[in-house]
Design the sequence.
């Protein structure tokens, strides 16, 4: 079971809005970075040996070391992402993919937009 340590704030490596899908398939794996994504499109996602049908509004929280294989049927898939590091141990969770209620989804979307806007204003 993956564990995430949030006893101290995570160290943010990168966050923004990204566009994918031009290549049809993309693969990633980060050894020491967690990946938080908020998706706006539907596609297929393989995480290690599990396959997920991602729909707009779904969120993934992917621990370090997990192989990510994205399969896009069209071009220009947009999503928000945050790549971060945490401590070594912490709270267990049993899924990589989450569906959120509308209120929580809107809150997370707002937080991403505000953080990205604030990042660009400070440059």
Sequence:
């Amino acid at each position: 079971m993956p564990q995430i340590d949030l006893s101290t704030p995570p160290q943010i490596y990168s966050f923004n809005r990204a566009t994918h899908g031009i290549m049809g398939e993309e693969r990633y794996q980060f050894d020491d970075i967690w990946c938080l994504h908020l998706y706006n499109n539907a596609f297929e996602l393989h995480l290690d040996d599990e396959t997920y049908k991602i729909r707009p509004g779904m969120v993934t929280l992917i621990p370090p070391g997990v192989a990510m294989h994205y399969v896009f049927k069209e071009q220009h898939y947009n999503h928000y992402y945050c790549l971060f590091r945490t401590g070594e141990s912490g709270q267990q969770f049993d899924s990589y993919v989450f569906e959120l209620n509308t209120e929580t989804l809107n809150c997370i979307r707002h937080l991403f937009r505000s953080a990205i806007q604030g990042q660009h204003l400070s440059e």
Notes: Helices lie at 102-121. The chain has a mean pLDDT of 86.
